[in-house]
Amino acid sequence: MREKAAVEVAGLVKRYGRTVAVDGLDLTVGYGTVTAVLGPNGAGKTTTVETCEGYRRPDAGTVRVLGLDPVADAARLRPRLGVMLQSGGVYPGVRAGEMLRHVARLHAHPLDVGALAERLGLGSCGRTPYRRLSGGQQQRLALALAVVGRPELVFLDEPTAGLDPQARRATWELVRELRADGVTCVLTTHHMDEAEELADAVAIVDAGRVIAHGSPDELCRGGAENTLRFTGRPGLDLGSLLTALPPDTAAAEAAPGVYRLRGTVDPQLIATVTSWCAQMGVLPDGIAVERHTLEDVFLELTGKELRG
Ligand code: ATP
Q1: Number of neighbours of residue 230 by Cβ within 10 angstroms
Q2: Which CATH architecture has domain 222-292?
Q3: Which terminal CB of the chain, N or C, has fewer other CB atoms within 10 Å?
Q4: Does domain 7-214 have CATH number 3.20.170.30?
Q5: Residues of the chain with pLDDT > 90: what percent?
């Protein structure tokens, strides 16, 4: 019987000397899903992913990948995994095309190498040695190497870091296709929009732990709070509005004439705001309820911003 999850990490601890890089991390990745692991620099994302790939041994906790132990069962697991490392792992003198063909030959049913290179914009650099590729080309080659063998599960560590918008979109498209083919994808990213675009599930990691896990929708709805935004004439006295609103509501003039209210934005709150506007003789323009973004959720949970 197939195990329930493609990746099951429980209580993972990994230390480097005195640094506790991963501190009791739990993560479950469902088959055929895209999971984004989000977190600031140094949160422990890469260490977690590298432990799942079998490159690092846990100091404590358990890691099962496709039901196997990534270290003890490495020989059985490796052919079923696609791994895109943050930094190369490619011999600097090897030509891009040779490398891709070589890795393709190691697999029973590889993708068409030419077509893959073309769609990732690597068609013209097949004869270029790895060290002469631009950073973005090296990145795209690493992605191609990770997927060319039609893996069941891919780990993509910051797959779009430093890519131009076109290459970024090509990468997203490829991830969507992998998912449509039933491939499980785990990607780390600093980009909220990437997680919102691609992920079925998001795990927010901070200081070596998963502090929130769910679909982007669940996470964004998780806090009951929302934002109400409207424009009117500048300098309105928000104090008089706040007296009519629940005590947990915050209001600010974000820019001249642009007002933002944060709190539980429900029909009653909207009615109170519009009737206050009527009393003030203000026609509110562009009233909008703004959903929380993952960025807001992350900021609320950690007090930190993500760096792109
Ligand atoms: P980034 O987003 O910057 O890639 P990350 O979330 O992937 O960060 P890790 O690379 O896993 O985080 O690092 C977690 C912590 O472990 C950091 O404090 C880092 O400095 C430390 N660390 C990572 N690798 C090593 C290592 N080989 N030796 C010593 N410390 C390490």
Answers
A1: 20
A2: 2-Layer Sandwich (3.30)
A3: N
A4: no
A5: 63
